[in-house]
Amino acid sequence: MKRGQQTATMGDTTIMATKVSPAAKKALMILNCILLSVGNCGGPLIMRLYFIHGGSRIWLSAFLETAGWPFILIVLFVLYIHRRYSATTQDKSEKLTYVPIVYMRPRVFFAAAVIGVMTGLDDYLYACGVSRLPVSTTSLIIASQLSFTAVFAFLLVKQKFTPYTINAVVLLTIGAVVLAFHGSRDRPKGVSKFEYYKGFSLTVTAAALYGLVLPSVELMYNKAKQAITYTLVLEIQMVLCLFATIFCTIGMFINNDFKVIPREAMNFGLGETRYYVVLCVNVVFWQCFFLGAIGVVFCASSLLSGIIIAVLLPVTEALAVIFYKEPFQVEKGIALVLSLWGFTSYFYGEYKHMKKKDRKQSLGDGSMELPQTNYSSV
User: Where does the record place it (predicted)?
Assistant: First the structure.
């Protein structure tokens, strides 16, 4: 068998699993970090740009967050071609190699579909917040998502609370309360106090719902009864985005967004052509975020993914202040410090937990399996 290939037997066929060299894995990791950084900073900014210059369709904005799911099909196709090539180059003495097109089993598909609908609702709530609040405020509120994630992870996947987790939850909660107390001092023009507080509460709800989504995905992985590989993770993410997009598309039909879009484009502050450019760039940025987050979690850990997002929080704040001239009051500064302190506490606790876990496990060979190695038909 050629170096870098691994097989698993199923009946009279052999399933091929291709391994990536450490150098290729490092390159993939760097690429995913770049995608995550671009999407995490660019997504909220470009969405806010749409609302600043006259856009008002909430369902359309929610739709754009996951409408880029066909990009994942391209990645899956490339991985499939790679597996096919690896299968045809193995030794002739091997058994007939089976190269499945889809790894996802029905139980995982239905679970991903349900979580996808939850994601679609979360996208809508988040878009409601962005339409009424400055990006700097929205980003700080979304930071409280970590608190909700910790609580739901405890309830769903029995993740234990540690002093570091409790400290993080308290700090992030205080940060959100500080923002609520400063009221509507950073209220955008044309937004009433009622609309401002409505956007604030909807953004908190979006953070809470996404805090439920993440442990739900982890629970799905635990109950999948099949190996979780990069290809399978991409398939799951595609289904999530697909059903989130379907959910938002139904909302667009009910709200008559498709009829209003041409008229809104004509009245857009930056011009009709740039209106559609903003929509397309919106899709690209958010898909970069999703693909990057998936890749970082798989290549390294969810811990590193969370650290990158946390580190980029002040970057997003600074970009919002620079490009949109958003006010940055003392309350936002306090909330930002508390958020970063909470993130640091949480991730330090996770780091210590992972180090303890690594001591109990033998080290692997440093390679990463891309396709499924123990896939069996349903």
Answer: Membrane
